[in-house]
Amino acid sequence: MNKYFIFISLLCALCACSGDDEEDKDMVKPSISESGIVASPIDCLVLHRGDVLPVRYLFVDNVELGNYNIEIHNNFDHHTHSTSALDCELEENKLPVNPWIFNKDYNIPEKLKEYKVSLDLKVPEDIDTGDYHFVIRLTDKAGWQTLKAVSIKVIE
User: Fold this and answer.
1) What is the 3-state secondary structure (H, E, C) of 37-106?
2) Has residue 112 got a pLDDT over 70?
3) What distance in Å separates the CA atoms of residue 103 and residue 128, rounded to the nearest whole number?
4) What is d(CA 6, CA 72) in angstroms, rounded to the nearest whole number?
């Protein structure tokens, strides 16, 4: 009887330490911050064909960062992603002929809660000029995602 009692007690103790508690789960989205850095790009940034677009943001998560994605696409139809309160001056609507299309995933080193992005993207010299969106999506290890969309313009 005593062995049976010890076995049941150990089983209960193991179940109590299963790690399924809510406090062990990451329930918070990561953030894309401009705090303490010179963030880039910012809304209404004007670039020339052939320029370098510096990408500078600070990523922060409460548990662990995962990866990020950068997408650049035309905004010739004046659609919105509703992540900015700033309105930039837009050109007339137009149909794309050779727009800048960029979409790339990037890994963040493991076990980081904070990561500074610093990369340079070359603006192609043969793309349509006009209004574009720069969109950055940050995902943490738990799968939570946050998005930042910035309006930029490419000119001659």
Assistant:
1) CCCECCCCEEEECCCEEEEEEEEECCCCEEEEEEEEEECCCCCCCCCCCCCCCCCCCCCCCCCCCEEEEE
2) yes
3) 17
4) 62
Give the pLDDT confidence score for residue 42 in this predicted structure: 94
The structural domains of the chain, with segments of one domain joined by +, span 29-155
Instruction: Indicate whether 17 pLDDT > 90.
Output: no
Which residues, 6+ apart, have CB-to-CB distance to 8 below 8 Å?
Answer: none
The single residue listed with the structure tokens 């905004």 is 75
Cβ-in-10-Å burial (0-12, 13-18, 19+) of 104 comes to exposed
Q: Bigger pLDDT: 12 or 36?
A: 36
Using CB atoms within 10 Å of the CB of residue 127, give its burial: 0 to 12 exposed, 13 to 18 middle, 19+ buried: buried
Buried b (16+ CB within 10 A) or exposed e, 40-62: bbeeebebebebebebbbbbbbe
pTM: 0.83
Query: Could you tell me the fold of the domain covering 29-155?
Result: Immunoglobulin-like (2.60.40)
Residues 47 and 155: their CA atoms lie apart, in Å, by 6
CB 52 within 8 A of CB 124: no
